[in-house]
Amino acid sequence: MIFSRIAPLFLAALAPLAAADFPVVRRSDRVLTVAQVKTFWVNRLRAQALPTKATSPDPENEDTRRVEAHRRRVLMEEIRAGQHDLAARLVCLSHNVEAWSRLGDESKSEASEQRLIFLREHVARLVTLEAQREAAVKLGEAADRTVAMSEEIQRLKGLLARQDEACG
Question: Any keyword Signal (predicted)?
């Protein structure tokens, strides 16, 4: 497969999947849509058991339970609102490459793989552009600080020169 040869180039493209704790879609020969991946995630998150309640009044355990329940609710709301559509699309395409292969339709498997590669390249470019933007902002801030320091140095030199003239 093409992807296995260029996989190292796309590590940055996996950021959307690493950003949230999504349930893993199991391997199968069923071809999925993005909507089905999102529905699977929401249903699986809803069905996952929370940490058990302590029999003794342990506030730390109850806090952990409350935080986990809140994290899941927020993640489900974000999935429903479309904030993780890119991650769902990556999972969908990755899953479908194997599903089409299992079904014996290599042309559809290769087409899905090409779309997956294109999407990962696009995400990698976006990640690179965002890193460059952040670096430019930091560089601009550093340049502003340098200008401000240069102006302060000139101001202090002027003060020293006036004091030397007054003393001299």
Answer: yes
